[in-house]
Design a protein that fits this description.
The complex is a heterodimer of chains A (211) and B (716). Chain A is of the alpha+beta class and 211 residues long. Chain A is built from eight helices and five strands. Chain A folds into two domains: 76 residues, Ubiquitin-like (UB roll) (Roll); 79 residues, DNA polymerase, domain 1. Helix content of chain A is 33%, strand content 12%. In chain A, helix 5 packs antiparallel against helix 8. With 716 residues, chain B is of the alpha+beta class. Chain B folds into three domains: 156 residues, 2-Layer Sandwich (Aldehyde Oxidoreductase, domain 4), CATH 3.30.365; 300 residues, Aldehyde oxidase/xanthine dehydrogenase, molybdopterin binding domain (Aldehyde Oxidoreductase, domain 4, 2-Layer Sandwich); 145 residues, Aldehyde oxidase/xanthine dehydrogenase, molybdopterin binding domain (Aldehyde Oxidoreductase, domain 4, 2-Layer Sandwich). The chains are: A alpha+beta (211), B alpha+beta (716). The structure holds FE2/S2 (inorganic) cluster (FES) (2 copies). One FE2/S2 (inorganic) cluster (FES) binds next to loops of chain A.
Chain lengths: 211, 716
Amino acid sequence: MANDEAKRPGVEGLSRRTFLKSVGAGSVGAGLLPRGGESGAAQAAEAPAVVGPGETSITLSINGETREVSVEPRVTLLDALRNRLDLTGSKKVCDEGTCGACTVLYDGEPAYACSILAMEAEGHEITTVEGLGTPDELSAVQECFVKHDALQCGFCTPGFVVACTAYLRENPEPTPEEAQRGLGGNYCRCGTYAGMREAVLDAARILRGGE
Amino acid sequence: MPEAAAWPPQDERSVLGKKIPRLDGPDKVTGRAKYAFDINRPDMLYAKVLGAKHAAATVTEFDPSEAEAMEGVEAIWVQPDIDGKTIHYSGQVLAAVAAVTEEIAEEALHRIHVAYELRDPVTDDTTPEHGGNVDEDVRGSIEDVEQAFEDADVVSSGHYGCATITHCCLEPHGHVAEFRDGDLHIWASTQNVSRYGQGLTDTAELPQDRIHVICEHMGGGFGSKLGDDIWGRAAVHLAKVTGKPVKLLLDRDLEQQIAGSRPSSHADVEIALNNDGEILAWRSHDWGSGGQGGYNRPHLPYTLSNLSPAVMRTQRVATNRGSARAWRAPLHPNGCLITMAALEDAAAAIGMDALEFFLNHVVDLTNNAEAYREELPIAAEMISYQDKAHLRGDETPGPVKRGLGIALHQWGGMGHNSNADVTIHPDGSVEVACGTQDLGTGSRTVLAIVVGETLGLPVDRVHPKIGRNAYPISGASGGSTTIGGISAASRLAAVAARDALFERVAPELGVEPGELEARDGRVQEQGNPENGMSWEEACGVLGVDSLTERGECVPPQAAQAGLISAGAAGCQIADVSVDVETGVVKLNEFVCVQDCGLIVSMETARSQVFGGMIMGVSYALYEEAIYDPVNGVMLNPDLEFYRLASMAEVGDLKVHMMTGPRYDERGVIGLGEPPVIGPGAAISNAIANACGVRVGMMPMTPDRVIQALAEGGKLA
Ligand code: FES
Ligand code: FES
């Protein structure tokens, strides 16, 4: 699906997601588009013809389970998870791909769930923080976050846990500097980076089968 | 207050002050922790707020009919006096829509037709031109000040300031409201669980006892989540008229515009001093803006309570910006920046090393001289000050200059009024209930530690229950008051519960209650542990009835009993590199030495200090709410252009907590605010020390650094 990005007719200054989110169910005139751009009606003609504007039932593969969910084309994967499947571990903070709070594994790769449409996600393997471990059976990364107190309010924490899990799979032996940059796509407001730095390196050690 | 309630001596503590993992860690790292934003209720509606598009305007037309007619829109709440409403800042709340999905609610916002008549906004706070009356505060007399400036060897002067920043809580403000069986249930993101319902009684048309507030976890407040807010009342209204649960948490753009900010400050400062470093007098003129409302003088001269004569003149600039709210350590970071920068400039003006100047000429002007005199050398040692220090301006060749900067900070941190109930059940289980909240500060963990220590039990044997207004009333979490309030209340409750249990167990063991101790999971005779029983056996003596005792922290009494006190002091030193070609500042190392009296939970206390330092690096180098100079609208109400520091940008951090005699014996003192006060000042001073010029305004972004270098003739 990632390749479709290039095939779809581009609209300058207006992402597909912004476009779909703002056009919505009905036909909305250009004057009501929240962020500049061209006429909504003109774009509607180019939108995928097979779905929408109403709800369509889709099947998502989440944490190894198959879940049916009914969504409009404009619904993001994040909102589908949080609002329709009650998987609220992924947090909505910036809702525009900046902060990392909504990070999920998308076919094993870290991705911002706020920047993927739910419909795009059909056919992909999605893992949320809930799929990585439970309070009684923490993953190594989760264990290390607790051990090094890499959290305070905890609102950014699920995003970091998922990002860290993905990062260490690709980079099992990071230097401290590499690890910090590798997790640069996530923000924490409470300032838990000191604990996180220790947690990431400790988790890397454990995952490598170290002491 | 029972004498026995005093904290046990340091060497007799089993869990108090130890590194205990945060109790709610496993729930948070697995996504199981439910925040207000995560609450989903059957048939719940999603509500979104419509904010004004302009910063200065009058609403001339408001027509929600098209939105109302949309399928899926269930109700619209509109500001009562919408026609002709004066708009003071962008994002000002106009209406809220409740719909069956979030997407429909968002779309409906765009279909509400609003027309405005625009006015010219006031946006510029960089000069006092738009300021109000001058408020003057004089120590000694004006004549003394003038005379001191005339007599001084040197007058050091500078302009310092900081931009408006936002609280930027990652969980936005708001709540879920549900009327069920005639009662109102609220899942709120709040720093004030016990009192959150008070402001909702009118909207809910219910007495307080029918309003149930829940806040198990909350995603950051930093002073901005103390009340229920207009949007909170809107959500209650929408729940009431629709008869369905309503979730209303602000979208990010509104969160950034209207849910809290820290005022800007600007100041012209002059310090009169002698060539040997003696500080003679202070003169400052400051102004700043907290939007339409509050701007109070930051503490000036910060920490220098004993500097006299001095004159401070202040003006408030009312701008068309979202209103300021208490921002972690109100008035302190701004005052610290202005004062510490002016002091470091004064040291540079007489060619004196900053550490020497602070130790010999500054600390005696504060009320914390003894603490600072102990802490500064420790901080200097931690950052290898003596090896790295140089007078202003790094003379090494090449574009990257390195420098050190010092800041002192202080805070009150006296515990608040708080109540806690400790219940011991016949099966040996123990719970502590307190109407407090955990902002990520570790309240849950603290309660379990205190009760565990008192009853001789491991922390995981104590079940802390917080985050409900049904629990014993506790104070709002603001001003670093929580740790003192809840630790004293839970200590008193646990001591009372323990003593009540001793009364019941003593006859069984043939001793007086006063001869018993609870230790290592046993209740036993002091000095004769053989004569005792396991905790479970002891609790079994209660028969069928559980035992509950209430503890109340009344601050003056708790202070008198040695449980809590006020007055935390600390210092920070930053080591930065400045690229004088690009203006980019890099933090190399950053250390903090912190006193907070007796430490209850070492792990979460250290995290608080790291957190304050990191938040401080973020506001020192990156954060700024930018307002359009023409139309006054906030230009960066997002997380892309309102920049927070990321993990790689905060340097190597080191924390040293002052423990042991002279600190520990003071009892518990709040820690949330202190470490966030100094980073702007320390980093500003380090930049000046590195590149030889003062970057007066914070955040010290590359453009400001370049400008200061250019003005100072130091641009590479
Ligand atoms: S919520 Fe998706 S990146 Fe911020
Ligand atoms: S722990 Fe609060 S935002 Fe990261």
